[in-house]
Predict the 3D structure of the following.
Amino acid sequence: MTHHPHRPLSADTNWPRPPSAIMARQLVLPPQGARVTVAGLVILRQRPGTANGVIFLTLEDETGVVNIVVWRKIYEAFRRAVIAGRLLRITGRIQRENNVTHVIAEKIEDISPMLDQLVQPGLTWKADVETPAQ
């Protein structure tokens, strides 16, 4: 039996639980309201004037993008990471609405110092993504 990539699986499906980070492409696996941890480069920060203090972040990992909603109270608790972080690890709850998945942030960690490890000589990185045929 195969799974359709855009249909959420049942709650008993195996998917990475916090503190392990789930990849963007795996966000179809956890059920609505599940607690997840995601990590990625910050590619967009938005604070619309009409959003009553809500901040929207977009993170990118090697498999896609993750939409993050940061409520005012969470922003105040993790302000420095939200403003200055280049690489973030965020734990929160899955919210799906109109075929769009968001993570509602509960904890935000700035893990930007880990970016330095990407350029260390001698490290080999293997991505679990398809590569085009030569």
Q: What stands out?
A: The CA atoms of residues 15 and 89 lie 17 Å apart. The mean pLDDT is 83.
